[in-house]
Amino acid sequence: MIRLSRTALPDDLAGRLVPLTDEITAAPDRVRTARAAWKRAAVRRSVHAPLRRLLEDMAPGHQRCMYCGDSQGTDIDHFEPLSRNPLRTFDWLNHLLACSTCNSNLKRDRFPLAGDGTPLLVDPTAEDPFDHLLLTLALGTYVALTPKGQATIDVCGLNRPVLTRGREQARRVVVASLLRWARGRDRGAADEMREAVLTVRWQPFADVCQSMLRLALMPGAARVLDEPVLSLLRDRELRDRLLV
């Protein structure tokens, strides 16, 4: 999971969401009305489709799930579940792109709260996941830094084996691509340098590269990252191409 920047809604799309929220607000059974409105064929065409395009543009790599970063995002997820707060059904700030595993099989309507009533799940468009989660690169597993981090690991299944194995492979791809970029630079081969960067940016598990880039600037980085990889991760030109 990495920090993502939420884009602004176009005015015409934002205008389409207001009457839908008004409809839910006026209904005696808001949850039922919200579910029906969300599934309406006309809404799927005029609201779902443009919302999803915006989310896909925000997502890492090739339209990856904003939770696990592995599978391609197929669903518009309501961060705060519709069943809990139907008035946020058409709230753009409540929409994330998720794969069906994270959305339908794991997260579902789970939305743990802290004692003060604030969400215990990390919203990657509103806060930096790395404030709450530490990625152990050697194992491909997440360690919680905060209660919010632990809840996110649990609810989204961030340490399920298919993800930990995928992160281990992603690290190997990142290392190989960094070395390829360096070879291209030494030969003055701009195409090879560009391909190496694209390989990293478009593979699953963007969190692996982003973790490596952050770790490279921390004290003790040399105990985890070997040369020449460490020096490459500190290279300003390369960092500018890879940081999101």
From TrEMBL:
Q: Which UniProt keywords apply?
A: Endonuclease, Hydrolase, Nuclease
Tagged with keyword Nuclease: yes
What the entry lists under InterPro entries is as follows: HNH, HNH_nuc
**What domain of life does the native source organism fall in?**
Bacteria
**Pfam families hit by this protein:** HNH
The record's GO molecular-function terms, alphabetically, read: endonuclease activity; nucleic acid binding; zinc ion binding
- Residue ranges constituting the HNH nuclease domain according to the UniProt record: 50-104
Say if the entry is tagged with keyword Hydrolase.
Answer: yes
Gene3D superfamilies of this UniProt entry?
1.10.30.50
Q: List the protein's name.
A: HNH endonuclease
Highest classification ranks of the organism: Bacteria, Bacillati, Actinomycetota, Actinomycetes, Pseudonocardiales
